[in-house]
Amino acid sequence: MKYIYILFLLFSFLTNAQNSPYINQVLILNEGCYDFYEQEMLEPATIGVYIPENNTYNTIMEIEGATFTTDLIIDGNYFYVAADNKILKFDLDTYELITSQDVPGVRELMIHEDYLIITKGDYDNETFGPVIFDSYLDVFSKIDLSLIMIFDTENGPQWSTESLLKHGDQLYVGINNAYEYGNYKGIVGVLDLNTMSYTNEIDLGEDGKNPISLHIKDDHIYSVNNKNWDGTSISKIQTTDLDVETIAITDVSSGCGVSMIRGDKLYYQISSDVQMNKFDLQEMTDVGVVNNLDYNYYAIAENPINGYLYTAIANFVTNSGVMIYDQEYNIINSFFADVASSKIVFDVRSELTSLDDNMHNQNFVTKTIDLLGRDDSKSNFKINLFDNGHVEKQYLINN
Questions:
Q1: Most exposed of 32, 71, 116, 350 (fewest Cβ within 10 Å)?
Q2: Each residue's pLDDT tens digit, 183-214
Q3: Taking the domains of the chain in order of start, what are their residue ranges?
Q4: The architecture CATH gives domain 17-352
Q5: Taking a C-beta distance cutoff of 8 angstroms, is the pair 130, 116 a contact?
């Protein structure tokens, strides 16, 4: 009977345990400030870490040799950075540089299984025209950053690429030829991730030129486009049949303005504007502005745990102000990061906790007993008694 009772308690503990997700840290990528005329770095490109628990921000590293940065992603125990002309892989806990790879023109990064897929494009600082690459879509090993394959212009995109979006077993690639004035493209390429073959290109139409960001909602992809830098449009792609609808929404370019999907609305901001616009994804029409989001933002991201918005305000000379909004867009916190914060990424982790573990970490264990009530037990199954009356069950597994 005693053993049945022990098994009952153990089963109760295990069935009441849950994986509780939390934000371990927030990584912030900062472009810094580069003087292209004098060809010198005025403010370094950096990576910083914000800890929500105690509202602290610290710069964890300067990225040497980089005149700017373009992307940061987290995968498992590592994070990857696209910095000017190279890819960097860091340990997510120690921030140690694991390895790096020279990749001129690298723009955005995407992980699929053991692959690290990148887009490319760049200006020629002497001609101020585009840099011509043999390929604009490359695949590296995420383990050691060795090159695995390229999609040359005969078998992949023919012009510079930017945004990457994975949906199911397809990877969508924004092709905008953004570095060749007057010859912008409005194409979304499709890479089959099962066969690693470039299978299709979707034409966004005359008003869909220069796609700068891709978003997913249900089975539709939405692209925010800069056109010829003379206006903004939004394209809707049906992923099942690749039908396209493009709507011109303003004669002012969105430039480097932020955009994101929240609920059934696409939020976007026009370059240098101080209001956040709402675009209804069902009706494909503007439906006003978002109250309280009244700054010009350079980065925006949603906390996946509580839905809070993190936004960065940059003047490209001094440290960026980061504003945190609750779900009703009230400012609940703020801090300063480094110069030109352009990417905000959440390090989400989970821990096995009991549903009975309610705020006991702030109290003290007064006694530890085993299932028979004996003190100082060496049993793997223990019961901790706290000074506030809380009871915690603890099952220790020996590796």
A1: 350
A2: 999 999 999 999 999 999 999 999 999 999 99
A3: 2-16+355-395, 17-352
A4: 7 Propeller (2.130)
A5: no
